[in-house]
Amino acid sequence: MTKNPVIAIDGFSSTGKSSISKVIAQKLDLIHLDTGALYRGITVYALRNHFQDQKINLTALKKDLHNIHLEFRNPQQQLVLFLNNQNINTEIRDPKVSEFVSIVAKEAEVRNFLLTTQRAMAEQGGIIMDGRDIGTVVLPNADYKFFLTASTEERTRRRVLELQSQGVNADFEEVKANLLMRDKIDSEREISPLKQAEDAILIDNTSINKEQTIDLILSYIKK
Ligand code: DC
After folding, report:
1. Which of 15, 80, 111, 169 has the least C-beta neighbours within 10 A?
2. Which residues are bridge partners to 201 per DSSP?
């Protein structure tokens, strides 16, 4: 394994990117950064401060980005996100945040605002970062790049189980529609769309579980 490796994990929603990256970080003693959490953090701020008529006022949000301070405390393999000194770790998983996050993540100003934070965190190496554009835009020189995918049905099933485990009553078709809508917005946006980097290893985990996916990724890294 490269010393202090930089590992990029991109892919579709509910392919297990974050939970898989977290375990790999523990096994290889790396820092784990879930970049989706940063976009969710901005969305929490937007819903609190710039939500009118069931819509986020993106113009007002973009003018207000300088008032947003996002910080991971105890980043050592622990993901605790603070927004302006307040722990928002639970709130970022709220279904309402999932509903609006792709719309916020489409904005160039938002992406540029977060680009600096993400690159600064990877400077020292020894990090695994998961998201949508890590291998293509944020860290194009990463030592290892993976792109995770799985069938829509399987991803929906996983998401429904995750929501149910949080006590949220989830309807399969509604969850599937939300996933498909997010995939569409993420893949079709003009800036940094979700796509596999040319040098990324494609991993389809439709019919393998989390542990098997982790082992597969590790088999490439440990070579
Ligand atoms: O991984 P996630 O579902 O928590 O990500 C939430 C949203 O953030 C996702 O719909 C797209 C966006 N995102 C992004 O545009 N770029 C990233 N690097 C990570 C997430």
Report:
1. 169
2. 146
Task: Compute, in angstroms, the gap from residue 35 CA to the centroid of ligand 1.
Answer: 7
Tokens 């509604």 locate to 174
Find where tokens 């976009």 sit: 39
- In the prediction, which pLDDT does 140 show? 97
Q: What CATH number corresponds to the domain at position 99?
A: 3.40.50.300
Tell me how far the alpha carbon of residue 9 lies from the centroid of ligand 1, in angstroms.
12
In contact, 130 and 13? CB cutoff 8 Å = no
- Better-predicted residue by pLDDT, 48 or 75: 48
Query: Average pLDDT, stretch 105-127?
Result: 93
Host H or E run for residue 121: helix 108-122
The reported pLDDT for the residue numbered 170 is 87
Residue at 108 is within a domain: yes
* Token pair of 33 as six digits: 């950064």
The residue whose CA has the least distance to atom 13 of ligand 1 is 36
Ligand 1 near 13 CB (within 6 A):
yes
Residue-level pLDDT at 110: 97
- Per the structure, the complete domain to which residue 42 belongs is given by 6-218
Q: State percent of the chain over pLDDT 70.
A: 97
Assess whether pLDDT exceeds 80 at residue 215: yes
Backbone angles phi, psi at 31, to 5 degrees: -85, 145
**How far apart, in whole angstroms, are the C-alpha atoms of residue 147 and residue 142?**
13
Which pLDDT belongs to residue 2? 73
